[in-house]
């Protein structure tokens, strides 16, 4: 494993200090062990103001897959790179060594080339969690295409938006997908999306479930047929450090998801550095990140981080509760997983079942536990620690975002403090600050404010695809000179960070981000709906649930049947526009919304009602029609 590695608390403090005082030297050392076709001219360039553009390792040339694969062939050719555990435990699992993965990536890259994909083209992937998804992602990186993975749970309309925004020319998909007891005919979802995607010329279909699909002649090809006659080697395409590597869409305050762009060299160094240090990875670790590759966690800690480090990564097609709530633990024992990285929502959903499901397994291989995606509540933290970690595995509560490329604030396993409900100390290279509303820095401990990051780090978002101004406005304009995270945080009396949650109009449902405006736009697609307002509220399992207040054309339905029909139409509209994952948990049909005289919805009131804090609604005198509030309180779900 490569060089820069913090192993003690003293080293952490020294490394942190060096990363702040001499970042060029620190990040040059972190980049040294990689294979570079040409070394960089400058380590860091640009800054956060006024343009919001950073560069890292500018002037360098490299290929990420050379570093994920070829670089390991001398010493790790026969080591397992990927272990694949399918949805159904009765289906046989499979494994790929580094040599086999290298060969498959080369072949897939050759298939892409054969099908007209060129360097810089965008390739959209809508694929179940199968090894070929990881292979396809790496194949794009190998031949220089920009991958845009869309979680295979989004609707046709959401896929179409993402494909059109990136003007993708090629789509990779599969015949079908099993997720728990659910079956999704992914190819037909893609077909529906492509009816409105003129840029797409080729669809490559992976055979997975064997279900029948429609193949459009001239557009659609089967991967297993295309791969028959391609070479097993493919020279890695030399990429410039700041060439885009991938686009990943995520939700913000506005209705339209944005394409977060990460580039080659900085992302590589950040993925590798954060993975090895946070999890304190050793040569024989089997790392299981339960996130789907459709999310950033799956990109950085399911694929790139582990492979850059030469570790073994486990890909799981299924869900925590299928066929039983013991599935996670069964998989850990079966494959001797040493590092387990999951989301609080998964832990909470398993806590709801008998602890016997956990106690039935030894879990003795586990060494480190991780949490990501949302704040982990103390109860879940202790359950995880006691029943899964048996009190002997450090827990790393890792705070980061799609935009940060990798982990920013977290314990380093077994080294820096791990305290329930605290993400902890910043990683070397990360300078968090708490800001007041006016943008001034809040000094000292035991303080709360807006979380922002001072100074660039290698994994920072470079731009939003096709619209740099949006990135500038969202992240670098609110507080000039800082990257603004959108989160609120507290620095406790020991300087450890506790993430409080979003301070913008973003809801975090089971660790997945949705903009309230995005869900409102979807709801408003229903023929019944005039206007809607969506807020988050505390949810026992999901962290936050989606609460929708909706005004309908015919007023508030008076019969149960009308009510059901209206609610069904609203749910259907959301499922069609975004996907089942954004389905409102509660819908309240109302005759009006609390608006100020200038027409602005007072969301504060809606949030309080959704949270059940109806006694503490605050001042409502500035409302146009205060009586609306009484109706909303009375009809609360
Ligand atoms: O609010 C924070 C929350 O998830 C947001 C980022 O979401 P996304 O870009 O989808 O990335 C999720 C996986 C990295 C953050 O703004 N969040 C993420 N991790 C944590 C967290 N909140 C509290 N604690 C965490 N460990």
UniProtKB/TrEMBL annotation:
Which Gene Ontology BP terms does the record give?
acetyl-CoA biosynthetic process from acetate
Which Pfam families does the UniProt entry name for this protein? Answer: ACAS_N, AMP-binding, AMP-binding_C
* Boundaries of every AMP-dependent synthetase/ligase domain copy: 70-455
Q: Which UniProt keywords apply?
A: Acetylation, ATP-binding, Ligase, Membrane, Nucleotide-binding, Transmembrane, Transmembrane helix
What is the main EC category here?
ligase
* Listed InterPro entries: Ac_CoA_lig, ACAS_N, AMP-bd_C, AMP-bd_C_sf, AMP-binding_CS, AMP-dep_synth/lig_dom, ANL_N_sf
Q: What is its EC number?
A: 6.2.1.1
Name the source's superkingdom: Bacteria
Under the heading Gene3D superfamilies, the entry gives: 3.30.300.30, N-terminal domain of ligase-like
Domain (Acetyl-coenzyme A synthetase N-terminal): give its ranges. 12-68
Query: Which CDD domains does the annotation name?
Result: ACS (cd05966)
GO molecular-function annotation terms? Answer: acetate-CoA ligase activity; AMP binding; ATP binding
- TM region positions: 123-145
Coiled coil start-end:
none
Domain named AMP-binding enzyme C-terminal: residues: 518-600
Q: Tell me which PROSITE patterns the record gives.
A: AMP_BINDING
Q: Which family does it belong to?
A: Belongs to the ATP-dependent AMP-binding enzyme family.
Q: Quote the protein name from its UniProt record.
A: Acetate--CoA ligase
What is the organism of origin for this protein? Hymenobacter polaris
């Amino acid at each position: 494993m490569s060089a820069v590695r913090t192993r003690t608390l003293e080293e952490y403090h020294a490394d942190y200090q060096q990363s702040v005082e001499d970042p060029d030297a620190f990040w040059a050392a972190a980049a040294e062990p990689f294979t570079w076709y040409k070394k960089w001219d400058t380590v860091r360039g640009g800054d956060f103001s006024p343009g919001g553009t950073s560069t890292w390792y500018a002037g360098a040339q490299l290929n990420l897959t050379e570093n994920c694969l070829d670089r390991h062939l001398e010493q790790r050719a026969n080591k397992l790179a990927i272990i694949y555990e399918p949805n159904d435990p009765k289906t046989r699992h499979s494994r790929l060594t580094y040599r086999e993965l290298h060969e498959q990536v080369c072949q897939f890259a050759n298939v892409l080339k054969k099908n007209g994909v060129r360097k810089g083209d965008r390739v959209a992937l809508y694929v179940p969690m199968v090894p070929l998804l990881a292979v396809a992602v790496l194949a794009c990186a190998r031949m220089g295409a920009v991958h845009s993975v869309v979680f295979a749970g989004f609707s046709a309309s959401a896929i179409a938006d993402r494909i059109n925004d990136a003007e993708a020319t090629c789509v990779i998909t599969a015949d079908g997908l099993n997720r728990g007891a659910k079956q999704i005919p992914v190819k037909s979802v893609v077909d529906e999306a492509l009816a409105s995607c003129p840029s797409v010329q080729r669809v490559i279909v992976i055979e997975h479930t064997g279900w029948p699909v429609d193949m459009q002649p001239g557009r659609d090809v089967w991967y297993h047929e295309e791969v028959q006659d391609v070479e097993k080697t493919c020279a890695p395409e030399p990429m410039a450090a700041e060439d885009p590597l991938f686009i990943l869409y995520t939700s913000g305050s506005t209705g339209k998801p944005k394409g977060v762009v990460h580039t080659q060299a900085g992302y590589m160094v950040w993925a590798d550095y954060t993975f090895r240090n946070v999890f304190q990875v050793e040569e024989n670790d089997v790392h299981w990140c339960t996130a789907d590759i459709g999310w950033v966690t799956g990109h950085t800690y399911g694929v790139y981080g582990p492979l850059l480090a030469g570790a073994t990564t486990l890909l799981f097609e299924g869900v925590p509760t299928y066929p039983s709530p013991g599935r996670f633990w069964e998989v850990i024992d079966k494959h001797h997983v040493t590092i387990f990285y999951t989301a609080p929502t998964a832990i909470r959903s398993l806590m709801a079942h008998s602890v016997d499901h956990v106690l039935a397994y030894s879990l003795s291989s586990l060494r480190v536990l991780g949490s990501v995606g949302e704040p982990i509540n103390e109860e879940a933290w202790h359950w995880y620690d006691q029943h899964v970690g048996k009190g002997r595995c450090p827990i790393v509560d890792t705070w980061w975002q799609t935009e940060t490329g990798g982990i920013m604030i977290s314990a380093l396993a077994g080294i820096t403090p791990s305290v329930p409900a605290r993400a902890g100390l910043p990683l070397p290279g990360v300078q968090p600050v708490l800001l007041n509303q006016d943008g001034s820095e809040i000094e000292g401990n035991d303080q709360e404010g807006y979380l922002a990051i001072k100074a660039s780090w290698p994994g920072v978002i470079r731009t939003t695809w096709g619209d740099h101004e949006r990135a500038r406005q969202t992240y670098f304009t609110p507080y000039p000179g800082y990257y603004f995270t959108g989160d609120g945080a507290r620095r406790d009396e020991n300087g450890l960070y506790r993430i409080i949650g979003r301070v913008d109009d973003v809801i975090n449902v089971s660790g997945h981000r949705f903009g309230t405006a995005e869900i409102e736009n979807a709801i408003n697609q229903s023929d019944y709906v005039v206007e809607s307002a969506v807020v988050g509220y505390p949810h026992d399992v999901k962290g936050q649930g989606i609460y929708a207040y909706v005004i309908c054309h015919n007023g508030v339905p008076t019969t149960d049947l009308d009510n059901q029909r209206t609610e069904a139409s609203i749910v259907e509209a959301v499922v069609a526009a975004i996907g089942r994952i954004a389905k409102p948990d509660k819908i309240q049909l109302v005759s009006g919304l609390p608006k100020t005289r200038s027409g602005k919805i007072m969301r504060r009131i809606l949030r309080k009602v959704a949270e059940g804090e109806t006694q503490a609604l605050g001042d409502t005198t500035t409302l146009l029609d205060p009586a609306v509030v009484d109706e909303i309180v009375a009809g609360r779900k």
